[in-house]
Amino acid sequence: MQAVVERSSAEKNVYVEGFKALEAEGLAESEALRSLRRRAIEGFEALGFPTPKMERWRNTNVSRIAKAQFRAAERPGEVRRESLAPHVYDGTGRMVFVDGFFVPELSTPLKLPAGVLATNLVEAKKLHGGLVESHLGHHVDFEDQAFAALNTALHRDGFFLYVPKNAVVEEPIHLLFLGTTPETAAYPRNLLVLEDNSQATIIESYVGLTEEAYLTCPVTEVSLGVNAVLDHYKVQRESLAAFHIAVQQSWQDRDSALRSHSISIGGALVRNDLNGYLDGEGVSCTLNGLYLVDGKQHVDNHMRMDHAKPNGYSHELYKGVLNGSGRAVFNGLIHVHEDAQKTDAVQSNRNLLLSKNALAHSNPQLEIFADDVRCTHGSTIGQLDDDAIFYLRSRGIGEEAARSLLTYAFASDIVERIKVESLRQDLEEYLFTRLPRGEVVRQAV
Length: 445
Hints:
By secondary structure, this protein is an alpha/beta fold. 26% of the residues lie in helices and 36% in strands. It has 2 domains: 2-279, no CATH class; 394-445.
C-alpha cells in the first residue's frame, strides 16, 4: 500500500511543481483568479488521478497519462503557415494556438460587430479582468474533476468571447489548437459568454502535428443569457499517440439554445466530459456526437444534463463506428429536478461494430424527480445489416463498397447536421477517404 501511495504522490508532484513554476512567473491576473488557481491545484492534490475503481471512470484507465508525467509546454513549437492548410475552413475567422499558446501571426482578423470582445484569454485578463473574473471557473466543478482542476490551475492561454445584448456574430470563429511538442501537456481554457438575445458560432478543432505522445487537456465554459443562441462544434483530430481529456460545461438562462456537435477522430485515449445546466424555462440544448475508432483507440463520452426549470428541452444523439480493437464508452445522465415539470428530454447512443474485436460500453441513464415529463433513452450496439448488404450487392455493388456505403450512411447522419458548410464538406471528404472504396461511396451519394 505504501508503494502505491508513493507512486501516486510522485505522479502528482510534476503537476504541483508545474503550478509553482507558473505562479512564480507572476501572471498578470487578479488576486481572485490567482486564488482560483491555488484552490484548483489543492483540489487536484486531494483528488489525484481517477482510477477504474471510481464509477465514472470504470471503463477508462488513465494510468498511462499519470505515469507519463507530462510537463507543461514552456513555449509554442514552430509551425509554418502552409502546414495549416489541411486544417482550416473557408468562411471563418481563425485564432491559432500552438501547444497552448496563442500565435497571432498564424491567426486571421475576426469580423466582429460593435461591442463584441473576442481575443486570447491572456489579453482578456489584462484588458477585461473584471468580466473574465465574473465568469471563469464559476460552473466547472474542479473539486470533483481532476483534469478540470489541472486545467484551472495550469492553463496559460485560451480563447475569450463576450457577445453583449442583441449582438450577432455572423462569421463563424475557428479556434485551431495544434499539438507539436512530444511529451508535453497543453491546457487551453476557453470562455464563451453570450448575453441576452445574442448569437455566435464557434468551431474548436484540435490537431496533432507530431506522431509522438503528448497531452491536451482543454476546458470550455459556456454561459448563455436569455434567448441567446450558440452553435458550437468541436473536432478532435489529435495524433494517434496523443491523449485528449476535455471538459465542456454550459449554463443556460431562459429560452436560450445551445447546439453542440462533437467529432472524435484521432487520439490514443480520449475522454470528453460534457455537462449542461438548464437553469431557465424554455431552454433548448442539443448534443450530437460522432466518434470513429480504429486500431487500439479508446474514446469515452461522458455527459450530464441537469434540467432545473420547467419546459426545458434536451436532445442527445451520439453515434460511433468501431473497427480493429477499438474501444468506446458512452455514459449519459439526464437529471430532471423536482421543479422541472414539462421537461422533454431524449438520449440515444448507437454503435456500429465493424470488427469482432471492437467493444462498446453504453449506459444511458435517467434520474427524474418531477412527475409531468417526457423523457426517453436508449442505446444500440450492432453490426451492418446483412440484408442491406445483400440488397446493394444485388444491384451490382461489390461487398466492400456496400459495407462502406452503409457505414457512410450511418455516420453522415451526424455530419449532415453541421451548419458550417466548409466544416461539413471537410468531414464528408474525410469519410470518403477513410472508408474502403470511398470513391464508389462518393459517386453513390
